[in-house]
Specification:
3-stranded antiparallel beta sheet, 14 helices, 12 strands, 43% helix, extended
Length: 466
């Protein structure tokens, strides 16, 4: 009997947990709280797309992170190659010919809106999209599509296959769902073989349906921001509109007003009808007036509350969900810019995403282009420019601090300099010099084939005659 009671108690607790999860609430005491707050328990791609299309905070979060990660294009190069090789030149030329970097960037943008996005390869191989991709002579185009534009139509069900459980064929919609453009081609579904499709699902390892949407964790906060901004704007509009209150003395004699109809006949209007017409005319025109019979007209005003504290709570929670500093995402109305710590934190966020999400995506793209003969085979690596690279102003400031430190060290009795000349030159991006004072090999001042303007500039920097 005690064992049965314990089992019943456990089942009852599980049933309560399942009931709470059904409504999405985190508060075990109030399982229906999310429903009362207006939060959805299940989110679809349509919810994320609408938040991105119509919500300033969601749209800003996607593009802030997108611009931060793609502020400079990466370099696909051979390992340990400082100068551009023939292999790298060929790869860069093939990508540039189809505006490939812009399309890869858009591929990433669409991935951040939903759980995943797809990239369709269009190849010059005289085969339909439904056929497997073997070899091709040219990369014709890259077509990035949203989550709702592509679906799996066939899975690999052969248990001995290396791709068991993976998609075999897809169908993709040529235009995004919901786009209404009478001048564009009609929407159509096309069958595509998996070898012509690349999937990007951020936060997932190999499972396109397990991607983590950027906006999912903070979606409830986006709902709160919409409530505050929309409700505050509506209340301000209603408060600014002249809501007229008519008040009559108990002894006032209010009579119906006679009017002349368009057909020439005489009619009457009630006092209520006349007041409604006068109120509409007063709110639409600047020179309207009100006629009363022994009464008084006043405006109804309400006191508006300051919504900034509630907005800041929701905005900070949303900024935390997308892992961006508040000042980077929303800025400051007081004119204060993001601090150096906030910029460094956001830069680290972008650099981490480049290394863990974008680099694997680009590596897969290059390997698949090598497999079909578009790119030559060989080892390669993806190199991103530093996200928080110092500007020219920062370099000069660092140089000034270094020389000031050298001067203080010399005055303190240190005989050896803290930095040599080449270390100081490296701080501002100048080429190092050899021991005899001449620039190292590759310096424009020493290269007879270099641009004349570059030669003059290099000679002037080292104190020579331009």
């Amino acid at each position: 009997m005690p064992e049965q009671l314990a089992v019943n108690t456990y089942e009852l607790a599980r049933a309560r947990e399942d009931f709470a999860r059904a409504f999405g609430a985190l508060d075990a005491k109030r399982p229906g709280a999310w429903q009362q707050y207006g939060y959805k328990s299940d989110l679809t791609f349509a919810d994320f797309k609408q938040a991105y299309d119509r919500g300033g905070a969601a749209h800003g979060a996607v593009h802030r992170l997108l611009d931060g990660c793609w502020q400079k294009l990466p370099r696909i190069k051979q390992p340990k190659a400082d100068k551009e090789t023939a292999w790298e030149t060929k790869v860069a030329k093939a990508i540039k010919a189809i505006n490939g970097w812009q399309k890869l960037r858009d591929f990433d943008r669409r991935n951040m809106v939903g759980r995943y996005a797809a990239l369709i390869y269009r190849m010059a191989d005289n085969q339909p999209l439904s056929a497997p991709l073997a070899t091709a002579t040219k990369l014709v185009d890259l077509v990035p599509v949203f989550e709702d534009q592509i679906k799996v139509t066939k899975w690999d069900e052969v248990k001995t296959s290396e791709r068991y459980g993976q998609p075999e064929t897809y169908q993709y919609r040529t235009r995004p769902l919901g786009e209404l453009d009478t001048q564009a081609a009609p929407s159509d579904w096309e069958t595509v073989h998996w070898t012509r499709v690349q999937i990007l699902a951020e936060g997932s390892v190999g499972d396109m349906f397990d991607g983590v949407p950027l906006l999912r964790a903070g979606f409830n906060n986006l709902v709160d921001i919409e409530k505050l901004s929309g409700g505050g704007a509506e209340s301000a509009l209603k408060n600014s509109a002249r809501t007229i209150v008519f008040q009559y003395e108990p002894t006032a004699s209010v009579q119906a007003i006679s009017t002349q109809n368009p057909d020439g006949s005489v009619g009457t209007k009630s006092v209520r009808e006349v007041h409604e017409e006068q109120t509409r005319a007063l709110n639409r025109n600047q020179d309207a007036s009100i006629v009363l019979q022994g009464g008084e007209a006043t405006t109804l005003q309400t006191t508006q509350s300051d919504l900034e504290p509630q907005f800041n709570i929701s905005a900070n929670l949303f900024a935390a969900s997308v892992r961006m500093p508040f000042t980077v995402l929303f800025g400051q109305q007081t004119g204060r810019l993001a601090s150096d710590e906030d910029k460094a934190d956001f830069g680290a966020r972008c650099a981490s995403r480049q290394a863990n999400d974008l680099t694997p995506m680009l590596e897969e793209f290059v390997r698949r282009m090598q497999a079909c003969g578009i790119f030559d085979k060989g080892d390669f690596e993806v190199e991103w420019p530093p996200v928080n690279a110092p500007s020219d102003k920062d370099k000069l400031e660092n140089l000034g601090k270094a020389t000031a430190a050298m001067q203080q060290a010399f005055q303190a009795g240190l005989t050896e300099p803290l930095f040599d000349a080449n270390e100081l030159r490296a701080m501002v991006g100048f080429e190092p010099r050899t021991d005899d004072g001449m620039p190292e090999e590759g310096d424009p001042a020493d290269d007879p084939d270099a641009d004349p303007a570059a030669q003059r500039q290099a000679k002037a920097q080292k104190g020579g005659t331009p």
